[in-house]
Amino acid sequence: MSSNIVTYLIETTNMTQRDIASKLKSLEKDKTGVSQALISKWKRGEKIPYDREIELLIIAGLFWELEYPDEAYHEGNEDLPNILMDPLIDSKWNVIVKSEKNQENWYNFFKDLLAPKQFVNVNSEYKDNDFVKFVRGCIFSLNDAGFEVPENSESVNNKNNSRFFNLLRRWMHRVTILQNWCSGSIPHRKFKDSSYTELYNQLPRIALSQIISNKDLPEKTDRVLSENFVEDTSQLVKSLIQSYMFWDDEGFLGDEDFNEILIPSKNDGNKTLNTSSSKASSNVIENVDDQYLSYSERIIIDRLNANEKLIQELHQKIDLLINQNDDTDGIPF
């Protein structure tokens, strides 16, 4: 499914690229004219300026709105008012969801999929604007992976579209697990490690590539796009791993640790874990049905539990040392 606004206009209104260029010129006389060549570049995927995107959405009869990150304020000059910066405009999103009602439905749909766990950003916090970007990124990933994304999330349920619904459910489970592994196992400094932030923000895309299976794909999926998506994501993961390893001075994790967790294995479905491993997984990730967990997911959970156990043992040793010190000199440290 093409989410390009120029392609959408051509397919739904029978306008040509020349018609679109002419329409944009006539909207505001003072603006620099738009050439047919520039329209062609936008159709091929070149970035469209914000004001032009809004104009194209208006021509297409699609809704649009300005959304802003809540942290982005203009500060430092008392004579100037606080000005919200960096408006979030992306015509691809509007082409997919079509209306503001469908937009809200998709946000609520993903909230329900993640329940009872809540989405957390790279700093392990929940913020509305980060969640908005997360949902949009998820929809774009589905589109890039060749899935036919319905404009209305209400049509995605167990009864009407069970295969697609179960895929989304497994996907959000995987995202939650990867987020827990990433924040709990990978050393990082809050607000400082750009390589960690980049890796964390790509987890939804990575998780989707890991659960794609040819036998479980919805009927209308473009399988060629799906295969390319998995391959491209694998290359992206390798690049992210190399970036992180380059900046990881402590050498806490090795290539094998990343590869086992982040790069999907074609043999996952043929591997099984014993009952004890399955039971241990419930300590960290609650309310995840075992039938939706793959071998790699359970490995992640087992590692999280192992880390938690090591931390508990460390606390016990610290308590023991403190008690010993109290017995000897009465000074706590």
Keywords, please?
single chain; 333 residues; mainly alpha; disordered C terminus
SSE diagram, text form:
Blueprint: H1 5-13, H2 17-27, H3 36-43, H4 50-60, H5 91-97, H6 100-114, H7 128-144, H8 162-185, H9 194-201, H10 203-211, H11 223-247, H12 255-262, H13 275-280, H14 295-329
Percent of residues in helical segments? 55-70%
The total of beta strands comes to 0
Low-pLDDT parts are 69-86, 267-289, 329-333
Span between N and C termini?
64 Å
Percent range for β-strand residues: under 5%
Taking all Cα atoms into account, the compactness measure Rg is: 24 Å
**Strand pairing plus helix content: what structural class?**
mainly alpha
- Secondary-structure element sequence? HHHHHHHHHHHHHH
Number of helices: 14
